[in-house]
Amino acid sequence: MTSFDRRITPVRPDLAAAHLAGQVESARFVEPRLMRVCAPSAWLRRSPAPDAPVDTEVLFGERVAVYETTEEGWAWGQVQTDDYVGWLSAEALSPAGDEADHRVATLRTFVYPGPSIKTTPLMALSIGARLRVLDRQGPFALTDAGGFVFAAHLAPLASREADYVAVASTFVGTPYLWGGRTSLGLDCSALVQLSLAACGVAAPRDSDMQERGCGRPLPDLRNDALERGDLVFWKGHVGIMQDAQTLLHANGHHMLVVAEPFAEARARILDATGADVTSFKRF
């Protein structure tokens, strides 16, 4: 059987995506049903259980190709944004509908039941969430999900931010959360992925995937030769250079997104794990 990465390949011994027929072994091959996340976010788990390990978090409006829905209320599918495969609560999904045309461009925004800030919000959406705007009422955008969002907090889906480091810097102080992808909590690779996405650059979900697929490799540079925007990788960790001396990263030491001297972070990680930087990458 062809080797594959279980994280991004929709295949199990009993079921696989139809397009993989002839490439992998499975009992049956099925076509997907396209759904979208209708909850503020949804955990993607390794197995259909509420206490199963979390791999990542899927944002409101992101589409999921669903290959199976169980009687217990779990859906197994592949996230269309970054190809991650896993189990979500079926209650967090709804029919895909029309394509989104806007994204949340601020760290967080509220969805109101009417075009007024004095109504009680229905939910809060994080940066990167996707919506379809149907109409404008004053400063509010009416979405196809039925709620109103402050229009200035949205940007056309095709628009691009100019500086992904500036986007990443807005997360400083956000709690570290393994598997998280929202402004309530996120991990190191989600910080990179979300910041690049705001600038129109699609990045894989995990740090090892990003190390293989993002930017061009650099030699083992001296600290003073690094530049703003360079990615720094360790085994299982990634950070962004905010400037030539400062590393911006979500990390389990501070349990926050922080900007700190790169030399200090490098020394601390080496002391704690015995592992040094594995690569530098530049766009």
Automatic annotation (TrEMBL):
Segments forming domain NlpC/P60: 158-283
The cross-references to InterPro entries, in alphabetical order and at most eight, read: NLP_P60_dom (IPR000064), Papain-like_cys_pep_sf (IPR038765), PG_Endopeptidase_C40 (IPR051794), SH3_16 (IPR041382)
Is Protease there in the keyword field? yes
Which GO MF terms does the UniProt record name? Answer: cysteine-type peptidase activity
The GO annotation for biological process reads:
proteolysis
> Which keywords are on file for this protein?
Hydrolase, Protease, Thiol protease
- Matching SUPFAM superfamilies: Cysteine proteinases
Entries under PANTHER family matching the protein: NLP_P60 DOMAIN-CONTAINING PROTEIN-RELATED (PTHR47359:SF3), PEPTIDOGLYCAN DL-ENDOPEPTIDASE CWLO (PTHR47359)
Q: Which family does it belong to?
A: Belongs to the peptidase C40 family.
Official protein name in the record:
NlpC/P60 family protein
Source organism: Alsobacter sp. KACC 23698
Lineage, broadest ranks: Bacteria, Pseudomonadati, Pseudomonadota, Alphaproteobacteria, Hyphomicrobiales
